[in-house]
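pls design
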């Protein structure tokens, strides 16, 4: 069922969407391979949801090419819809039904659904299978949303900010669910505000800001590509703090050694963390 490794599950070229004067998505190129977990990471208003909505076929684009599982979502067929699982930001399944009734009900929309009880088990809701949805906690509701996203046995799962509002424990549990789905061969695209989440889950990630991809690669690649620049900090003789961003920190320190006799006051050399890289790429550096 899953496409061959190396094939692209998602491909966009020059994707654009405008709302009035605002370029919400301003020329996005994405290539997501079959079987990988891809993170689209960016701050509020970066264009993540708009991009995912276009990939789902729920929003029309203004320009660019889009191919998702070999079809254009704007004109996709019913069989295509069965292969794409969607977890919405605000799912609202009817509250009076039980978890099991809801998952069974949704399974009937698909030609080859997964077994409802197996999916309930997979998302960790087996103990709540007989509970009404309105009695579930926020985190349990989100698990049900994922159950409804995977009940059709999708090749590709699109998750828009799946863990917003989760406590740290619920987030970790959710991560292991995503890893399990990935291990079963599902291609996963998830959007997130959380660098930690993208780093924990994504094989590759793209950082998006102002509707544009600012950087793309594996988390390790991003860290390496942008960590060449170090910051050297020290204290001037009048007590004022100084800092210099440089690709040659040794040279900077050698220069300081010539100026100071003995120890350089307040000397500190730091390399950017992935978080620094992310904040710099998204223009939020001062947030630190
Ligand atoms: N239907 C709409 N009409 C007008 N502007 C919109 C609409 N939807 C989104 N926008 C604007 O487009 C930009 C991108 O929004 P989008 O929801 O795609 O960002 P996002 O990265 O998902 O943000 P968040 O993390 O806050 O959900 C934002 O400035 C937003 O205000």
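designed seq:
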């Amino acid at each position: 069922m899953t496409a061959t490794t190396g094939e692209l599950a998602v491909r966009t070229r020059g994707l654009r969407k405008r709302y009035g004067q605002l370029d919400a998505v301003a020329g996005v190129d994405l290539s997501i391979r079959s079987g990988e977990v891809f993170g689209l990471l960016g701050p509020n208003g970066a264009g993540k949801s708009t991009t995912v909505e276009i990939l789902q076929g729920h929003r029309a684009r203004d320009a660019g090419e889009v191919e998702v599982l070999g079809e254009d979502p704007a004109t996709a067929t019913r069989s295509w819809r069965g292969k794409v699982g969607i977890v919405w930001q605000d799912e609202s399944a009817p509250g009076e039904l039980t978890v099991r009734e809801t998952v069974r009900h949704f399974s009937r929309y698909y030609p080859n659904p997964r077994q409802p009880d197996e999916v309930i088990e997979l998302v960790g809701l087996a103990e709540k299978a007989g509970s009404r949805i309105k009695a579930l906690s926020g985190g349990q509701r989100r698990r049900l949303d994922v159950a409804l996203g995977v009940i059709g046995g999708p090749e590709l799962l699109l998750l828009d900010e799946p863990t917003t509002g989760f406590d740290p424990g619920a987030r970790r549990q959710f991560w292991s669910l995503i890893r399990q789905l990935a291990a079963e061969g599902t291609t996963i695209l998830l959007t997130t505000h959380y660098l930690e989440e993208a780093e924990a889950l994504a094989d590759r990630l793209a950082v998006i800001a102002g509707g544009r991809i600012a950087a793309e690669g594996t988390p390790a690649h991003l860290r390496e590509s942008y960590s060449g620049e170090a910051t050297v900090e020290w204290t001037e003789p009048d007590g004022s703090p100084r800092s210099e961003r440089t690709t040659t920190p040794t040279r900077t320190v050698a220069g300081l050694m010539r100026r100071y006799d003995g120890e350089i006051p307040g000397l500190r050399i730091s390399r950017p963390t992935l978080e620094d890289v992310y904040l710099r790429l998204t223009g939020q550096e001062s947030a630190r």
